[in-house]
Amino acid sequence: MSNSTPATGNEKTKSRGKRSLCSPSRVIHIRQIPDDVTGAEVISLGVPFGKVTNVLMLRGKGQAFLEMASIDAAVSMVNYYAVATPLLHNQPVYMQYSCYKELRTDNQPNQAIFSKFGFVLKIVMFHKNNQFQVLLQYADAMNAYYAKMALDGHCIYTGCCTLRIDFSKFTKLTVKYNNDKSRDFTRTDLPFGDGHRTVETSLSAPFATQNTVFPSYTGPPGFAPALGFPQGAGPSALPVPGALGPLTVTTSAAPGHMTVPGIPGNSVLLVSNLNPEAITPYGLFILFGVYGDVHRVKIMFKKRGIALVQMADATQAQLAINYLNGQKLYGRVMHTTLSKYQTIQLPREGQEDKGLTKDYSNSPLHRFKHPCSKNFQNIFPPSATLHLSNIPPSVTVDDLKNLFTSKGSTVKGFKFFQKDCKMALIQLGSVEEAVHALIELHNHDFGENQHLRVSFSKSSI
What we know:
- Helix content is 18%, strand content 24%.
- By secondary structure, the chain is of the alpha+beta class.
- It folds into 4 domains: 8-97, 2-Layer Sandwich (Alpha-Beta Plaits); 114-208, 2-Layer Sandwich (Alpha-Beta Plaits), CATH 3.30.70.330; 249-359, RRM (RNA recognition motif) domain (Alpha-Beta Plaits); 383-456, Alpha-Beta Plaits, CATH 3.30.70.
- It has a 5-stranded antiparallel beta sheet with strand order 19-14-16-15-20, with helices on one face. A 4-stranded antiparallel beta sheet has the order 2-3-1-6. It has a 4-stranded antiparallel beta sheet with strand order 22-23-21-26, with helices on one face.
- It is globular, with a radius of gyration of 23 Å.
């Protein structure tokens, strides 16, 4: 990557002792990064909050610059990590707004766009439906995921050649020739040929998820051939699922749920520092259900400030940690981590429980029971603005404002979607207010089998 804009010395001069003076910017300055952290891992810090448009690693200085697509995304990221310090390779890293407004790297010729995210194994180019298309296979599925999240909609050249990226139905490329239309970067012995190439599917190796190490890797310095996450890697460990289904293998006992290779296998969360006077199993079910399908919840009988939450799979468990660890709930900062338990046991018949253990395995309120659900693409950090949907035509702006006010919320703004009055945005007084309102009003019954759907929004009013 070029460092034409953010010269290290200038940034240090501007920020030394005055880091708080930089106004919000799309560019975020990250410090105290361990030497062995890859660019893709740094990118993973930003992916949950929106599209990452550029990254610059300052090797040897323990620093990086991350450019988000919007200031709103950057603000959400900085605010979130100010409360829940992210870990990279089990070490805390720190961030603040950069005094630079963008990372300019267009002046670097022949920039290897996709290699920034991991080792590219094979590329096949072809024309279909009067469009130029490319199939690209990574060494690791997570690299493919990060590349899609960061580059979809990205312009190869300033203002033109916009990329449209999706996951292919093919899981493996077979390349017969190394030429200007196809290439296998793991083999130098292939003939130039006539440009003919083939694409084969292989159900045993979805999108080349095997953790193969390639000693001959010659991509940009500092980017590892394969990306894996250590257990307990905190918010950097998992991105927002955009289309995890096509990318991963179904291994969970629950039909339709996906897991990502490299993610620890435990799906049970330990949630502590809860307000015992306010917390309920249902409340935890609704809140954690924003980030995955909750199967069981257990509030400890003798320690009501501690609970176990069992997600559908390990990927969703890590996602819930990513977003909810450090979130304020009913006046207390909630701590969320992996539990030592592999499952939540239901109380035996006759055992005193007082309704503190609940089984939600077959709940109709699961948001992710369908692998292709659009809900996978609309997962965002807790925010003061909520997205409302499934609003009946008879419900007015005042009706909705009064509904939220009745639950203790302060309504700061409201607007219906212009093209679809079944959806709206409502901005409340704080993130904590929005969390409480989501718990209280998701699935609110308007009558005639019309139930309100509430989720966190990436937008503000």
